[in-house]
């Protein structure tokens, strides 16, 4: 009898992300020992953001390269990061258009999609 592996293969996870599905990525017990809800930003929906906020119960972040952050004019939250895991947070942003207060799941989804858009410019975001 073949024993089921506890985790999906990388290829399976990539296929899920490409299909717009959310996955859980867990880190090492020696780090934070937690799981993160991950989804391709261009596939994010208000329903997905609501699920993350309701069940993830943590920050909703948009991992982005340093180069892209510079292109978008998004600055570091702190100039001297002394946090134990050196998590490199940036200032919070919202989409400049198409949202209300920025806090709703629909507003957050719009901002995430804007961050992922290859055509987004600094003026498309507000801090």
Keywords:
127 residues, alpha+beta, DHBP synthase, two-stranded antiparallel ribbon, two-stranded antiparallel sheet, 4 helices, 31% helix, 9% strand
Model regions low in confidence, pLDDT < 50 over at least 5 residues: none
Return the CATH topology: DHBP synthase
Assign the CATH architecture: Alpha-Beta Complex
Structural class: alpha+beta
For the record, what CATH class applies? Answer: Alpha Beta
How much helix is in the residues?
Answer: 25-40%
Oligomer type: single chain
Give a structural overview:
- This protein has 127 residues and is an alpha+beta fold.
- The chain has four helices and four strands; from the N terminus they run αββααβαβ.
- The protein is 31% helix and 9% strand.
- A hairpin with an 8-residue loop joins strand 1 and strand 2.
- The termini are far apart.
Topology:
Blueprint: H1 10-18, E1 23-26, E2 35-38, H2 46-56, H3 66-72, E3 94-95, H4 105-116, E4 125-126
Antiparallel strand pairs: 1-2, 3-4
Helix pairs in contact: 2-4
Question: What's a concise summary of this model?
Answer:
By secondary structure, the protein is an alpha+beta fold.
